[in-house]
Amino acid sequence: MDQLLDVETLKKLSPEQQEQVISGVKQQAALANAQNLVTDISEKCTNKCITAPGSSLASGEKQCLQRCMDRFMESWNLVSQTLQKRLQEEMASSGGMGGGFGQGPSFS
Fold it and tell me: Positions of the region Disordered?
């Protein structure tokens, strides 16, 4: 299943095949999120904390980087938990996916 699948093709797959596709999409999304997180932390914290590039980090720069990364991760986790809770609430109120692909909850 290396080719692109449209919604109609996905609907024709067996439940096991649908689960494989969904699992693959979830894994790719998780990987992309992790890569974005690392990139964002690196860019934001480096720009904020390292004022003068050199061969080593000053003590204050190390502390700043640690605090920056900690705050960034706390914020990321809070947003992720809030979004996950909202998604679960919307799915529960709409009765789940409701009949197939492309009919998930709206985030408006």
Answer: 89-108
Task: Determine, yes or no, domain membership for 5.
Answer: no
Number of compact structural domains in the chain: 1
- Tell me the C-alpha to C-alpha distance, in Å, between residue 84 and each of 21, 30, 50, 89, 97: 21, 13, 34, 9, 15
Residue 38: give its domain's CATH number. Answer: 1.10.287.810
Cα separation, 8 vs 100, in Å, equals 10
Q: What is the dihedral of CA 71, 76, 77, 81, to 10 degrees?
A: 140
Q: Which domain holds residue 40?
A: 24-50+57-85
- What integer best gives the mean pLDDT of the chain? 82
Q: What is the spatial distance between Cα 18 and Cα 31, in angstroms, rounded to a whole number?
A: 20
